[in-house]
Write a structure and sequence with these properties.
Elements (H helix, E strand, L loop, with lengths): L1 E6 L6 E6 L2 E7 L1 H4 L9 H8 L6 E5 L2 H10 L9 H6 L8 E4 L1 H10 L6 E7 L6 E9 L2 E9 L4 H11 L8 H7 L9 H10 L16 H26 L5 E5 L18 E3 L9 H10 L9 E6 L5 H11 L1 E5 L1 E4 L8 E5 L6 H9 L8 E5 L3 H4 E2 L11 E4 L14 E3 L1 E3 L5 H14 L3 E6 L11 H10 L6
Parallel strand pairs: 1-4, 4-5, 6-9, 9-10, 15-19
Antiparallel strand pairs: 1-2, 2-3, 6-7, 7-8, 11-13, 12-14, 14-20, 15-20, 16-17, 17-18
Bound molecules: fe (ii) ion (FE2).
Fe (ii) ion binds next to helix 5.
Amino acid sequence: MIEWGISAAAHDAALTVVDGDKILFASHAERYSGIKNDKHLNEDLINAALKFGKPEKIHWYEKHKLRAMRRLLSGQGLIRFSVRQYLADFGLKDIPVEFASHHESHAAAGFYTSRFDTATALVIDAIGEFDTASVWLCDGEKMKKKWSMDYPKSLGLFYSAITDRVELKPNEDEYILMGMAAYGDSNKYYWQMRELYEKENLHRGCRWWLSGNTDYYDFAAAAQKIYEEEFDKLLHRAKKSDPTQDNLVLSGGCALNCSANHIAKKYFKNIWIIPNPGDAGSSLGAIAANNRRRLDWRGPYLGENIDTEYPVEKLLTSLLEDGIVGVASGRAEFGPRAFGNRSLLADPTRPDIKDRVNVIKRRQKFRPFAPVILEQYASEYFDMPVEVSPYMQFTARCKFPTRFPAIIHVDGTSRVQTINEEQHPGLFELLTKWYEETGCPMLLNTSLNIKGFPMVNDEKDAEMFQGMYNVKVY
Ligand SMILES: [Fe+2]
């Protein structure tokens, strides 16, 4: 039976298609509309999903009435929104709709794509219907909520409010704040910011806080420090819920804080984070929460297909000649990061590469790029907090930072992606050949997009990218 999961009308709309335990398609509205984090569905996305068959059931992410009630109670006003009308406007009439709650969907997205039979799930985000953090005990078909933190107290809202305070875009640029943290003094504003976190409702930001002060790097450093301290407390709470449990599923938008995720190893042996742990990933999570059945997770390559064989030789030649190349081949990644199908790849040893990639992507100069490394060499080059890190979810200290200037952050760490043959045979072959030619087992890997725009989706986008910059895209 074809079922759809939809996360829409909040931010970063997404759609997942499953048939039984098979995930047939998953993508974001932004990839089809060209509007970054587009909150609404669009016809092109719907048509792409319809290629896999008409849905017999739709799972809608969020108990919409509960959310409306919370908005009303928190003074955000009344929203008039009918899910059925919204779907009807896209021609999706007369299809049964089942609703799934926000945090339950986050937890289910993680647990039912993991390889764990049992696990503790910790969900942390800005806000669900009312929950802002929750702990779930998961066992087969059962998922039981053990604890939750309620609005307005929220670690996610706090991090987004500071993102807004330093003039970045909340709900989008939190990862930039995380990158800025390494440049600041985390103690300078620590106590003032702690007070802000403890006492204020930060749902509408805190632009008024220390108004006029522009020590943004110090703000970022204090925010990251507080985040890590609070994250540690939440992990402790999750462990206490079932002290015998070694498996952790981490979910919610805050699971993208890769600088903090290593702390989970203090409490749990095994950690699984779906590469799309935020609200868009809950288009899949809504299906999982309602069906309580394992989904056959084979990787994040679930979006639009560019039907070409992975161009290993062309990529290798360009990398050896020019040091930088784009790739748009196979199915697009579901989630905010590119893992080799919509990637800009580059030689991490060349000193000029970081600036060249920054110019192409119009990014702030301070921001680090991530490496993709052959899995078998990861611990030789990095102090890995986990054995494998296929989705860039953990930072690791590089043992030879001066040799790889393009992928080292100012604090000496990198957000590592490990790769093996099963994950992506083409990218694995490319890395293997690159290693044979150069003795370097890694490449810089960043998403094929420019700042403020979504990732390249189809052939047309790829051609446009190639035309705009002097970089080959295969
Ligand atoms: Fe969420």
